[in-house]
Specification:
Length: 292
């Protein structure tokens, strides 16, 4: 039997569907920004939460390199209690739930992103709404009760990173670990955020970038020792340039044409096309900190 609709490019149709959906969510985000400008308190990632989720649904395997790297450096034994800070929509949290039978806690200030996580884990992760640098938020986690604290890609949004480290030291067990990946300062990725995202995202972008020196300053006197700090260029992988452009429209709430988004990515981060895929450079800093 011949296929239905012969000659129809199903991949193109799928991208058309996501393009229309992201357009609608961009318009919703603009309305939320108008409400915030009028005085309503709305977090950036509550404005962008649905857009972020759409990006991850569009290309769910694009960031597989990130998951593999975090799995390898976390090297969970299978029974640890883990706290994921700045968890967002649970990109890493959902994997951690699979990697350990211990308790898993996700902390983030954005209600909307955490709602996406809650739908995915169906009560199997404890969710705390609030910032990792806020003691009232973090005191919901008992002293010395956590084996591993982790985070991926969200620490640069924490405004008081020293206060966050105080809380991490408090909740970790002796010999407990803080293992994370984030954006390093003075790198192509930090320049991407500072020169492109900060200007072109609907919500802008502010950040405090990390480095080995900054980490050592942040943990001074807290009984935390910086052990391993490594730079690694991750590869984000897409089926086409158009898919990548749509992904970033959602991920970073861009309201620019695909061509402009692709030019920015090419000029600042660099990407290559081979074997029918698009490979985007995504350089990050990974580190491990041990509690004495």
């Amino acid at each position: 039997m011949p296929p239905e609709n012969p000659g129809v490019d199903l991949s193109r149709n799928r991208l058309d569907v996501f393009s229309a959906r992201i357009d609608q969510e961009i318009n919703t985000a603009k309305r939320l920004i108008e409400r915030r400008d009028a005085g309503e308190k709305i977090e950036d990632f509550d404005i962008r939460g649905d857009l972020y989720a759409s990006a991850m649904e569009l290309a769910p395997d694009a960031r597989q390199d990130d998951i593999v790297t975090m799995r390898d450096i976390l090297h969970l034994r299978g029974d640890e209690n883990v706290v994921d800070l700045a968890a967002g929509g649970g990109f890493l949290t959902k994997k951690i739930r699979q990697w350990t039978k211990g308790d898993v806690i996700a902390v983030d200030p954005a209600h909307q992103q955490l709602q996406h996580l809650e739908k995915a884990v169906k009560g199997d992760v404890r969710i705390i709404v609030g910032s990792p640098d806020d003691h009232q938020t973090m005191e919901m986690i008992d002293d010395g009760s956590v084996d591993v604290v982790t985070s991926f890609g969200g620490l640069h949004h924490v405004s008081d990173q020293r206060a966050m480290m105080v809380e991490i030291s408090r909740i970790l067990k002796p010999k407990g670990r803080f293992v994370a990946g984030d954006v390093g300062g003075d790198t192509p990725l930090s320049r991407h955020f500072d020169e492109v995202t900060a200007v072109k995202s609907l919500t802008g972008h502010t950040a405090i970038w990390l480095s080995k020196e900054r980490l050592e300053e942040l943990v001074e006197g807290l009984g935390l020792n910086v052990r391993n700090v490594d730079d690694k260029v991750q590869k984000w992988v897409y089926d086409s340039e158009r898919e990548m452009a749509l992904f970033f429209r959602g991920l970073h709430a861009y309201d620019q044409p695909d061509e402009e988004i692709l030019t920015d990515l090419k000029n600042v981060l660099g990407y290559e096309k081979r074997d029918g895929k698009v490979y985007l450079n995504w350089p990050m800093i990974f580190f491990e900190i041990i509690k004495e």
